[in-house]
Amino acid sequence: MFSNRNNAALSNSNIVTFSIVIPTYNESENILRLISEIEKNLPTGDFTEIIVVDDNSPDGTGKLVEDCITKKGNKAKEKNSSHTKNHILKVVHRTGKEGLIPAILDGVRQSSGTNVLIMDADFSHPPEVIPKMMSELKRNPNSIVIGSRYIEGGKVVGWPARRKILSKGASTLARVGLNVKNVKDPMSGLFALPRELIQNISIATKGYKILLEILVKNKEIPVIEVPYTFTDRQSGKSKMSYNVIVNYAEAIWQLYQHGQKSDRVKISEQVNKRSVRFISKVGRYYTVSISGLVINYIVSFLLANDVANSIRLLSNEWYLEASIIGAIISMTSNFFLNKYWTFEDKRFEVRSTARQYLSFIGMSAIGLIIQISLLYYMVENFVPYRMSLIISIAVATTINFILNKKFTFKEKVWA
Ligand code: GDD
Ligand code: MN
User: Fold this and answer.
1) Which of 4, 82, 317, 356 has its CA 20 to 30 A from that of 45?
2) What's the rounded mean pLDDT across residues 386-399?
3) Is the CB of 211 under 6 A from ligand 1?
């Protein structure tokens, strides 16, 4: 429903220079006072249309404006003062809360001014800055005039730090990211421009940032910023600050943190699993190696003892033979234990097992060379023999483990 009851008080020759579009939702505490403040500040030379676009506010904002229009119409008739009137008040009633941008666009659609000025109803945008913005736009007809918090002379009062940071951050992001660097306050809700500019644009975004979209889609149009002090609303509740923007930002922040946290957990789980697996395999490998030494010792001992000797199992160099046999048996048992237990490889296909076996022996030989070289090097450098032995065995066994893991059992080293 579109209300324009004091039309009778206007002469048809009035060309509307400016349409001031004020979206409202539950602004009953502000709207009438704001209208009268705007009226006081309107430049006398121009004819201005004030359009309140109300989303059927439950607090009766729309009805208040409606009544105000009726009263003004009656007064105008009484005093027959239409010729001194430099403005008209209208209200657009929308069926329900559909958001700020649709409300603004609806207001613009129903306006008739050459230029439109958009502003909030909660006194965050001071009516005193209107004349300056209007005159700037009249002087530079094909441009966008922005009420700016972020140029010299402008500021924000009454916002908590986090909203200030949020707003500034969002502005900076938009300026850089959307390449509207020349504009200091592209997120402003206070701006004026030729009506055509906003009417011909298809606004795709939801939310609050209609100006941003206009700027992005009209990069060639000059921008003029007029400083003002944004004061957080004194009456009524913000429809966006906490509910829309901060919630949104908080949601993003939470999602971001949530993502980070679960990533962290996932990564540490992986690292955990990986390192646990690695360490457990190293542990098994060492255990198998020790069992090999024991087997080696026992076999060598048994073969070299008197019983074995007496049945002439071995030659005269019995102790060497015993040791070689002990080594071969222990190496073989090491191989199978490591294959089955350490590396959990339960396939025993003959050819591949033989290949693995040879590889395992080759790696053991490399390990032995490393062990002996290291032992020699350390002892030569006056490291005590026993310590040298322990270190060289540990190093050689570890290298051996890695070599076998990678080349014999074809696993990734760190997996
Ligand atoms: N019709 C209608 N429908 N009006 C709405 C709606 C809606 O869904 N939501 C909000 N409004 C009106 C409010 O009544 C007010 O007049 C104006 O839009 C701004 O709403 P606020 O809730 O006061 O917003 P704010 O103070 O948090 O945000 C201000 O700062 C932003 C910049 O950081 C506004 O100026 C924004 O336009 C601006 O982008
Ligand atoms: Mn506000």
Assistant:
1) 4
2) 88
3) no
Indicate if the alpha-carbon torsion angle 39, 42, 46, 51 is positive or negative: negative
pLDDT computed for residue 377 by the predictor: 86
Ligand 1 atom with the shortest distance to the CA of 163: 33
Helix (H, G, I), strand (E, B) or coil at 231: strand
Rounded CA gap, 285 and 360, in Å?
13
Rounded to 10°, the helix 385-403/350-380 angle is: 150
Ligand 1 center to residue 363 CA distance, Å? 74
Q: In 3D, which of 139, 136, 119 has the Cα closest to residue 23?
A: 119
- Cα→Cα distances 206→69, 105, 125, 172, 202, Å: 31, 12, 22, 20, 12
Could you tell me what percent of the chain has a pLDDT over 90? 45
User: What distance in Å separates the CA atoms of residue 184 and residue 162, rounded to the nearest whole number?
Assistant: 19
Q: Please choose, from the candidates 148, 142, 92, 109, the residue with its C-alpha nearest in 3D space to the C-alpha of residue 125.
A: 148
CA 61 to chain centre: 38
Mean pLDDT of 50-61: 97
* Top-confidence residue, 260 or 326: 326
| Identity of the amino acid at 155 | K
* Residue pLDDT, tens place only, 189-198: 999 999 999 8
Is 183 in contact with 225 (CB distance < 8 Å)?
A: yes
Strand 155-157 to strand 229-231: parallel, antiparallel, or no bridges (unpaired)?
A: parallel
For atom 23 of ligand 1, which residue has the closest CA?
Answer: 238
| Cβ-count burial 225-243 (b if 16+ within 10 Å, e if not) | bbbbbbbebeebebbbbee
CA distance 148 to 183: 9
Q: Is the CB of 55 under 6 A from ligand 1?
A: yes
Confidence class of residue 240 from pLDDT cuts 50, 70 and 90? low
Tell me the three state secondary structure of residue 155: strand
**Ligand 1: which atom is nearest the Cα of residue 97?**
8
Q: Whose CA is nearest to atom 32 of ligand 1?
A: 188
230-234, 294-298, 351-355: least confident range: 294-298
**Ligand 1 and 398: CB distance under 6 A:** no
- For the chain, the straight-line distance linking the first and the last C-alpha, in angstroms and rounded, comes to 70
